[in-house]
Amino acid sequence: MTRRLDGATLRGPLELTADVVVVGSGVAGAAFAREAAALGAAVVVVEAGRWFEPPDFPLASFDAMALMYRDLGASVVLGPMPAPYVQGRMVGGSSPINGAICWRLPRDVYDEWLTADPALRDALPWDELEAVTDSLETRLNVRPTDPTIAGRKNQLLARGAEALGLEHRPIRRNVSGCEGLGRCMQGCPNGRKLSVDATLLADAEAAGTRVVSAVEVRELDLSRGRCVGVRGVTPAGHSVRVKAASVVLAASAIQTPVLLMANGLRHGPVGQNFQCHPGVSMAGRFPEPVRMWEGATQGHEVIGLRHEGLKFEALGFGTAVLAGRLRGVGRELSREFDDMDHQLDWGAAVRAEARGRVLRMGRHPVVLFSPSARDVALFRRGLRVMGEMMLAAGADFVDPGVRGAVARTSKVADLVALEASGPRFAGAYTAAITHMFGTCRMGSDPQQSVVRPDFRHHAVQGLYVADSSVFPTSTGVNPQIPIMALATMCARRALRSPP
Ligand SMILES: Cc1cc2nc3c(=O)[nH]c(=O)nc-3n(C[C@H](O)[C@H](O)[C@H](O)COP(=O)(O)OP(=O)(O)OC[C@H]3O[C@@H](n4cnc5c(N)ncnc54)[C@H](O)[C@@H]3O)c2cc1C
Ligand code: SF4
Known about the structure:
By secondary structure, the protein is of the alpha+beta class. Helices cover 28% and strands 22% of the residues. It folds into 2 domains: 4-52 and 90-98 and 103-139 and 195-267 and 441-496, FAD/NAD(P)-binding domain, CATH 3.50.50.60; 144-184 and 274-433, Cholesterol Oxidase, domain 2 (2-Layer Sandwich), CATH 3.30.410. The chain has helices spanning 27-38, 61-68, 107-116, 120-123, 126-139, 152-164, 200-206, 252-262, 319-322, 330-338, 373-392, 412-421, 480-496; strands at residues 4-6, 14-23, 43-46, 76-77, 83-84, 142-144, 168-170, 172-174, 210-213, 216-223, 226-233, 239-249, 275-285, 300-302, 310-314, 343-350, 357-361, 364-368, 397-399, 431-437, 463-465. The strands form 5 sheets. Strands 1, 2, 3, 9, 10, 11, 12 and 21 form an 8-stranded mixed β-sheet that branches. Strands 7, 13, 14, 15, 16, 19 and 20 form a 7-stranded antiparallel β-sheet that branches. The protein is globular and about 65 Å long. Flavin-adenine dinucleotide (FAD) is lined by residues 23-29, 46-49, 86-90, 93-95, 97-101, 185, 216-217, 250-252, 255, 259, 434-435, 467-468, 478-480, 483.
């Protein structure tokens, strides 16, 4: 029996039955399905996006966004700093188009969670979290970027960090035989990224899980305080129903609260406490060609200021995205294009303290987010530090890209002034958001949380949330491995509880 069912090929309604139905096949959904299937459950995963195999991945960034990203990668948070929040929409979720950066949940972040709610100590024991993380890292072959495929952009970041005395290291990534083609965000054309579709979901399929793609779940079947299944729709409008003893939402920190609200489940702070890591970037020009599109897409990171809420990474974009930072028109722009192989971008992921909100408009999310004054100060500090690292690594000039502030400069004094007296208005900064948390957070107090410490919805039996919606706070680091680890623990708890 084939384990895959493409909703786009259905010619009529479909009804399936399972022990567990999982909504979303991304990082959380795949990890949940793998563990649940290993524990013997009959699992059906329902995914809104379609399957892509490495040969299908487009070369150009904008083609990739059109095919594999939600809303062309152009969903935007509303507020003083309208920034794109970017998500994949395909089997594997955001994993096939992410940067492959792997971090374990830092102990200091875990301790923050326990301080806020001591009940989590017993519900999420650190030793279990560590053991689950170890086994995920083994399955995903997580290891530091091989220096032979690091590429110039990553080597220069190391040089800049060294000059400023900041702790740095090759990024730990989930790849195997990475050739440094620099195309992670369009999907690895040679299948070298060990994204969840090719690993955790494949394991789940091997253990009997069925994956239904191209079906968007719209309704939760609720009956007498229990969730007993889901209903979705194919692109042609055929209905798909899955009946199950347990329903697991793994549709991401944006879509999961929308699904709950759309089904009248407004219990607790659903949609509130949205947290994220806005990323600001610094462009720079080097005298020698740096060919930013070559080498591991994101191969080096600076971690010495993580305690301040700042983490720096080399970035790797397709040339079409990089070109967005070029200046001028006509001949000037044409010269800039000729010079593109000398230019690169580095990014600072900011652990923002501000909390936003996900609202629902029909079936669609509206995300409100307004960075705090302290968050904007971190944007300025991050840009200053990146600029200083670039100049120390030999850049001719750097370009912070802040409206109403210094443009291209080669003077450290300008960067110091940017940090001290640059714009206070968040709208002066250009940021993008790829890490999102907290919109159905877990906790023991039903007034302050949406799910219990065992991931079950406070008010509905048989309904679980497995994605980063449940995280009590942001992580300050790239979250895919902590999301997989918590989703694995969610599966253990869901299958242990009486139906
Ligand atoms: C460009 C980019 C780069 C990133 N780089 C990194 C990195 O290097 N390292 C790292 O740790 N993290 C990275 N991240 C973040 C990381 O990928 C996400 O945090 C993680 O994928 C979130 O997991 P998730 O399961 O919550 O959501 P996703 O992985 O996004 O999966 C959610 C899935 O649910 C599906 N879905 C939503 N609604 C429905 C519905 N109603 N019915 C059916 N299906 C539905 C979606 O189509 C999607 O496939 C990156 C993200 C992006 C976008
Ligand atoms: S850097 Fe290139 S080869 Fe390596 S995983 Fe990413 S896309 Fe694949």
